[in-house]
């Protein structure tokens, strides 16, 4: 489930790139993503098990922090980072989150973290550095690095809070309440009545090797909402029922590996031998982590 979630997020990155090329901003795309995920999850729960949406007043503060700091902030600070530093550097910094999860599990929860987990984390980060080609140049901004570091912190917070709350609440209702607070946050930042609705009906090129193909923006937004948001979030949180957060975080590092391959096949982005080597290192790290029973 964690691997499928990472794969769906990687493909979603290419779809999002096409949407952003249509003129819809990253903030608005994230707003649609949160609002659409909220609507889809609530509909499913109302049709199947409406009682699971019930919440006690004392749960609301936790769910608000989970939705805003865990779901909204991780996207917001990531977008702030990539406006100031190279995408690859921002991606590498954000994927230090599994290391933060392992450190928290070891020193805050006092859980045993096996030596091979630390080895796997080190290998995974080294592989990611090769994939994103950190030494390949690009403008480095102190503010951009700080924003990417906060994105890593909020990603780690999201995983740890989800793991903790699953003992009391099911996956779908946890995400529904989380996306509710995330959507309220985005509505306060960018009111819906100023949304550029006229662009939704436009038809845009799929770019790269598919540049002769076109798709309506509304269909691409639907992809971002369902296979790009609802399914991977449900899969990742559900994986926490079967694996500890430390290992789930390492498996999620498949995302930049698959994203690099998708960028090569679809968007005609370069894929050097060093990047293929980095992908192999990350996959090896995930396999090592899986042996840490």
What does this 3D model show about the protein?
By secondary structure, the protein is mainly α. It has one domain. The longest helix has 24 residues, at 142-165. A two-stranded antiparallel sheet has the order 1-2. A hairpin with an 8-residue loop joins strand 1 (203-205) and strand 2 (214-216). The model has no long low-confidence stretch (mean pLDDT 85). Helices cover 70% and strands 2% of the residues. The chain has helices at 2-21, 26-48, 60-82, 87-94, 97-107, 115-132, 142-165, 171-189, 217-239, 245-251, 254-265, 273-290, and strands at residues 203-205, 214-216. The protein has twelve helices and two strands.
Shape: globular
End-to-end Cα distance, whole Å, is: 18 Å
Number of domains: 1
The rounded Rg comes to 19 Å
Proportion of residues in β-strands:
under 5%
The SSE string, one letter per element, is HHHHHHHHEEHHHH
Mean pLDDT: 85
Number of E-type strands = 2
Question: Going across the major beta sheet, what is the strand order?
Answer: 1-2
Q: Considering DSSP H and I runs of 4 or more, what fraction of the residues is helical? A: over 70%
Sequence stretches where pLDDT stays below 50 over 5 or more residues: none
Biggest sheet record:
2 strands, antiparallel
Task: Figure out the total of helices.
Answer: 12
Structural class: mainly alpha
Task: Identify the notable features of this structure and list them briefly.
293 residues, mainly alpha, two-stranded antiparallel ribbon, 12 helices, 2 strands
Compact description:
This protein is mainly alpha-helical and 293 residues long. It has helices at 2-21, 26-48, 60-82, 87-94, 97-107, 115-132, 142-165, 171-189, 217-239, 245-251, 254-265, 273-290, and strands spanning 203-205, 214-216. It has one domain (2-290).
